[in-house]
C-alpha cells in the first residue's frame, strides 16, 4: 500500500460521493463516502477514531479501527495509507466548479455545529451558484443563501425551528475544526 500511495494522484477520492453528520449524546458521527472508500469518523470528547470502513484495498486501515487520536494524528495516518481526504489548494482549484463562497461555507459549518443539525450532502449542491449551499435535512433538500455580505437566508423548514433533541457533550468546536479541514461542501457532487 505504501508503494501505491507514492505513485497515485492525491485527489482520487474527489469529488466525494456523499457525507452525513449525526449527533448523539456522547459522540458525533461524520460518514464520508468517496469513489473508493467509505469512512465513518467518530468524535468523542476531543478525539477522533474510525468506526467503520469499506474497501478491501484499504485493509491496512483496519488497525486504526476505534483507536482514539487527535485530528492531526488521524490525518497523518490516513495519508500514510494513501487516503487523502484533506483538500489542498491544487485540489480545490481542480474542483472549482463545486466550490462555495468561503464565508458561506464557514457560516454553514457553524450553523450545523452549534445547532446540532443532523444533515447530509445533497446532489443539488453541485447545481446551484456559489452563493447557495444545499443540504439534506430531515430527508428533504434545504438551502442557505447569501443575501448580502455577512447576511444569510436559512431555509431549513421545520427542521430549523426544532429545539435540540439532546445536548451533545462533544464540543461543537471539534466538529467545526474537522469540517474546516475536510471541507465537504467544496467537492461533494
TrEMBL record:
It comes from the Eukaryota. GO terms for molecular function: beta-tubulin binding; microtubule binding. GO terms for cellular component: axoneme. This is Uncharacterized protein. It comes from Caenorhabditis nigoni. The gene is Cnig_chr_X.g25430.
